[in-house]
Write a structure and sequence with these properties.
Layout lengths: L1 H28 L6 H10 L2 H20 L3 H4 L3 H14 L2 H32 L1 H14 L8 H8 L3 H25 L3 H9 L4 H38 L5 H10 L3 H29 L6
Amino acid sequence: MSHIASGAPGDLTAPSRAAADHAALAGTLIPPPPPAWRRLARRLLHLWLLALFLVAWQAVSTLGTRINPQLDVMLPPPTAVFSAAQELIARGALLTHVMDSLRRVLVAVGVGAILGVPLGLAMGWSAGFRASVDPLLEFIRPIPPLAWIPLSILWFGIGDTQNEYIIFLAAFFPIVLNAMAGARDVDTYLVRAGLSLGARRRDLFLTVVLPASLPNIFTGLRVGLGIGWMALVAGELVAAPTGLGFMINNARTLFRSDYILLGMVLIGILGLILDFLMRQIAAIAMPWYRR
C-alpha cells in the first residue's frame, strides 16, 4: 500500500514533465531573431532597383552630353540636382517650398478624410442613403480638379486656401469610394451573427462594420495622398506664391531643369515617406490584418 501511495505522485507528474521536455525542445528549434544590423541590411537591399535607376540616370546624363551637349540642360545628372538642392538650402528657399506644399497636402487630405470617411461608411451601411447621395457624387466626381482652378481663384484668391481646395477635391472621392466599399462588402455572416445575438445597429456598426472597413479606409487614404500630390503641383503651377509646384514653374521660366528635377524628386520622396507612415499607422490600427 505504501508503495502505491508513494508512486502515485510520480505518475501524476510524468505528463507535466513530458510537456516541459517538449516545450524545451520546441524552444531550441525556434531560431533566434536576427540582429538589428542584419534586419537593416535586408531592408536596404530592397532599394537595389532605386540605386540602379540613379546609376543609370547619372551614366546617361554624363555620357550623353558628349554626344549631345544640350542634354546637360535637358536631363541634368543626379549630382547636379544635389548641387541645386544645396544651393536652395543655403538661400533658405527650399525648406519654405517643402513645408508649404506639405502643409497644404496634409490639411486638404485631412479635411477630405474627416468628411469622406463618415460619408463613405454611411453610404456603404445604408442602401437608401447611398441611393440618394450617389447620383450627386457621381455627377461631381468626373469633373477634373483642374477644371475648378478658375473658380477657386475667384472664390478664394491666390493662396493656401485655393490650393487646399483643389487638393481636397482630388483626394475626397477616392476616400469616399473606398470607405463605402469597405462598409458595403462586410461579410454578411458576421452581420447576421451579430443580429442573431441581439446586437443593436450602433453596436454592430462599431464592432463589426467599422473594423472590417479599416483596410479599405486606409487604402483610400493612401490613394488620396498620392492623387493629392498631383493636384498640388497642378494648383501651384497656376496660382501659388510658394511651394514645390511654384518652384518647378518658376524654374521653367529660368531654364533651370535641375530645379525642376529637384522639385520632382522631393515630391517623390515626400510621397514615399507619407505612404510609409500611413502603412505604419495602418499596421498599428489593424494588428489583426496582414497581407
